[in-house]
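I hope you will forgive my troubling you with a question about protein structure. I am sending you one protein, given as its amino acid sequence and as whole-number tokens for its backbone shapes. Thank you for your consideration; the sequence and its tokens are set out here:
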Amino acid sequence: MGGTKKVTTSLSSPDLEVVRRLARRRHGRNLSAAFAELIGHASRLEAMDRVLEALPAPSPEGLARLEHELSTPLAPAPVRRRPKKREAA
């Protein structure tokens, strides 16, 4: 096998169902591909953690600005309007 290892794991039924849904929707029912996608997300989170640990702690002012920005609601999605139907001549 090209660089892969077979593993055995135990998941709760709800967690397994989440992975199965992901596999159905995005990977043609391939559970290995679904797990590979999830592991890719976990790797990125781990890398972000390392970056955040390397950065200095925010100042009180910076922290207040961040908390304010996070508490501000996001702008609503733009409303898509259908073009008017042309009348037959």
Remarks:
- The chain is about 55% helix and 0% strand.
